[in-house]
Specification:
The chain has 292 residues and is an alpha+beta fold. It contains 11 helices and 8 strands. Strand 5 and strand 6 form a beta hairpin. Helix 2 packs across helix 6. 39% of the residues are buried.
């Protein structure tokens, strides 16, 4: 048996543990902020894994756009897609809740986190390369058509497939740590066990038809309960990009997710924990009244 064939067989007989990649990302983010003079800090990342052969991937050509890439388009022998969410520290969304334009803190968070994603992807690639595996690294953003505004690789949809969360009324992904942060992803031919997806909703509006605070937060009415005008939204992003062009490329806004129930958490999970307690309290008071 020639050496190349032996290496190929060995690669697919070794299954990489998800903990290896997860720990690598978590420690990298922790050290990253400590070793650099940055405006941004992050909470502990969330990491998920999707089987590159998952049946949801082909559906992205309908849900996102016909040009959306499949993992195998990027890496012919793709086995896994790694997805991760980098939550901003809580003070960043708080700065972005009033003025109709993005706060400088939100702008810095966008720029600095995009660079962090690039650096994380390079670290993942180095780690897997040492074990004989290949990777395809995706840019953090701007992989979309500026006319149609349709992405060729949607990180939020990839993260959904990898079990990191569910979509909210604002069309963004709500994770267990909310939606104020950035998403990244990497395609690899390493086999890693896929993360299970939940069937539960994360959005209060979709769960019980309550909240819809994100719609009220939209500064130019691009977001409605049942519709989303992406061109109108992008116009606002470009206005912010022009205001902050000296800081770097920052076509951002983030008003719809700044200080809303899903900013930092899965609000449906929180509600499910609160409601039984409230019910018990009401039942106890009712019992006391009847027996007074």
């Amino acid at each position: 048996m020639d050496t190349q064939k032996a290496i190929h067989i060995y690669q697919y007989s070794e299954r990489i543990k998800s903990e290896l990649i997860s720990n690598e990302i978590v420690h990298f983010v922790k050290d990253y902020g400590a070793s650099r003079q940055l405006n941004t800090k992050w909470d502990k990342p969330l990491i998920g894994f999707a089987d590159a052969g998952d049946s949801l991937f082909p559906k992205l050509k309908e849900l996102v756009g016909p040009t959306h890439a499949m993992p195998q388009d990027l890496l012919p022998d793709a086995q896994t897609v790694i997805a991760y969410f980098l939550p901003f520290e809580k003070k960043i969304p708080k700065t972005n809740r009033r003025n109709p334009y993005a706060s400088k803190e939100w702008v810095f968070a966008y720029i600095e986190t995009n660079q962090l994603i690039i650096d994380i992807n390079n670290r993942i690639s180095e780690t897997l390369s040492k074990k004989g595996f290949n990777t395809f690294l995706l840019p953090p953003t701007h992989n979309f058509d500026t006319n149609t505004l349709i992405s060729d690789w949607s990180h939020k949809h990839i993260a959904y497939i990898a079990g990191l969360g569910k979509f909210g009324t604002h069309h963004l992904l709500i994770t267990d740590k909310g939606c104020c942060g950035r998403l990244g992803s990497v395609v690899t031919n390493a086999q890693i066990d896929a993360t299970k997806r939940t069937k539960k909703e994360y959005c209060l509006s979709k769960f019980k038809d309550i909240c819809k605070v994100c719609v009220k937060k939209c500064v130019n009415e691009a977001l409605k309960v049942d519709t989303f005008d992406r061109q109108k939204c992008y116009k606002m992003l470009l206005e912010n990009a022009e205001i902050f062009k000296k800081e770097g490329l920052a076509d951002v806004c983030g008003k719809c997710i700044s200080i809303v129930p899903c900013s930092y958490q899965n609000p449906v999970e929180k509600l499910s924990k609160i409601e039984p307690r409230e019910f018990r309290t009401r039942r106890s008071k009712s019992f006391q009244t009847r027996n007074a």
